[in-house]
Amino acid sequence: MTFKLIKHEFRATRRLMLPLLAALLATSLLTRFSADFLTAVGDPGGFFVMLAGLLSTTYSVLAFSAGFITAFFMAQRFYRSMLGDEGYLSFTLPVSVHQLVLSRLLVAVFWFALSALIEIFAVFAMLYEAGFWRLLTEELPGLVRIFFVDFDLNFTLYALEWAAIAVVMLASGVLMVYASFATGQLFKRNRLLMSFLSFLGYVLFSQTLIVIISLPLTSIPMPDLDLAVGLHVVFLLFLLGTVLYAAFYYMVTVFLLGRKLNLE
């Protein structure tokens, strides 16, 4: 049943996300081609210059707003499907609250990750010049390998750790928003306002907790570790802390929606 919920979420979200990401990718490529065309032709006329300027402006707007649009749409989707009119249908399905929250979380993380990857590709497309891909695919990896070999570091292991941290951080941020909505729905009036205030409260709580935990750690003598082991320890501790944050906000969301749900 969880797979069916995920499939339904994809259908509900792809109607906006696919056109948005396709437009971002297309405008980045068209802007790059138009710049190359203007450089090659020299003086093609006012129409082509205006078209190139329009494409560049459109790309800039999409590149700047894609992340905000994704965040807003994912938050809106959760609120409408769980706490809005669709909430009555969602909570009558023969599934648990865990399945409802998890399906929306996985889809949201997927769209955030895909949006980030397309934004990175779009930036590379905009920065493309003669020899750029050769530098990117041949020389840069060589420099990276030299760095990791010199310091005896395992690139594959570090890449997996970075990827895991990025995914868990995305999930933690999404779950903080979910927990804010779940807290805001406890109030009878101004639920969106209370959700926003709850979000600010959770951010303040998280930052305060980080400071409280970090300060004592600075006074603890660190063992004499080599660079490779020390970096792994730091990354794994950061990953563990992020997982705990995500688990906390997940449990808050599930508890409030399962035990304190108020759709009136």
Please tell me about this protein's structure.
The model has no long low-confidence stretch (mean pLDDT 79). The protein has helices at 2-41, 46-82, 87-90, 97-126, 132-150, 155-184, 191-218, 227-259. The protein is mostly helical and 264 residues long. The relative contact order is 0.10. Helices cover 84% and strands 0% of the residues. It has 2 domains: 1-128; 132-264, no CATH class. Helix 6 (155-184) runs parallel beside helix 8.
Summary?
Helix content is 84%, strand content 0%.
What's the layout of helices and strands?
Blueprint (H helix, E strand, L loop, with lengths): L1 H40 L4 H37 L4 H4 L6 H30 L5 H19 L4 H30 L6 H28 L8 H33 L5
Helix pairs in contact: 1-2, 1-4, 2-4, 4-6, 6-7, 6-8
Mean pLDDT: 79
- Please outline the major beta sheet: none
The residue fraction in helices comes out at: over 70%
Element order, helices and strands?
HHHHHHHH
Q: Tell me the number of strands.
A: 0
Taken from the alpha-carbon principal axes, the silhouette is globular
Query: How much beta, percentage-wise?
Result: under 5%
Give the structural class.
mainly alpha
Number of helices: 8
Give the count of structural domains: 2
Provide the gyration radius in Å: 23 Å
Between the first and last Cα atoms, what is the distance in angstroms?
Answer: 27 Å
**What are the low-pLDDT stretches, counting only 5+ consecutive residues below 50?**
none
Sum up the structure in keywords.
0% strand, mainly alpha, 2 domains, 264 residues
